[in-house]
Specification:
mainly alpha, Arc Repressor Mutant, subunit A, 3 domains, elongated, WH-like_DNA-bd_sf, IS3 family transposase ISBam1, Trp_repressor/repl_initiator, InsJ-like_HTH
Length: 175
């Protein structure tokens, strides 16, 4: 969530653009904010007008990120300047995109799956047993036998582990 309302940002920009007060440092001191923030808001206002202060929730695809990085390199712009041109609210993310691109190319800019990763890979599925045993080859039957033996051994070890943990100190009965 934004720290300052859109109305407050408009008031600061109008105050700066009126020219009555001297420079961004003076406007920042009057409104008790950082002078870099004033410059950023003024640049956004000049490029995008009223749309600069609307709420924006965006996810950028790899082509857009690459377009931003190419403009930054070709025009020799800073992250803050490129963010103002493309209306990206967090200029710091452009530096992250640049490091990702430098280390891994366009594939590094692709969005990653969100959420918690799967802890344990899914177990392998036993060979298809819908065919009758007479029609299957000897290798297929041996592969299924090996799979079933491994599964059986795993379940026996799991059962032994559960049994070894369950005997605890006997509880005393209350009187």
């Amino acid at each position: 969530m934004s720290r300052h309302s859109a109305q407050f940002k408009r008031r600061v920009v109008k105050d700066y653009l009126s020219g009555r007060v001297g420079g961004s440092a003076e406007v920042a001191r009057r409104h008790d904010i950082d002078h870099g923030t004033v410059r950023k808001w003024v640049a956004a206002w000049r490029l995008h007008g009223e749309a600069a202060f609307r709420k924006k929730f965006s996810h950028y695809d790899s082509r857009f990120k690459l377009k931003v990085l190419r403009l930054m390199v070709s025009k020799d712009l800073s992250c803050r300047q490129v963010a103002a041109v493309f209306d990206i609210r967090n200029p710091g993310v452009i530096g992250i995109w640049k490091r990702q691109y430098d280390s891994g190319g366009i594939q590094a800019l692709e969005p990653r799956p969100r959420g918690r990763p799967v802890k344990q890979p899914k177990s392998s599925v036993p060979p298809d047993s819908t065919e009758s045993d007479e029609t299957r080859t000897k290798e297929e039957l041996l592969a299924e036998l090996n799979y079933l033996r491994m599964e059986n051994a795993y379940l026996k070890k799991l059962d032994a582990l559960i049994r070894s943990e369950s005997p605890k100190a006997p509880r005393r009965k209350r009187r």
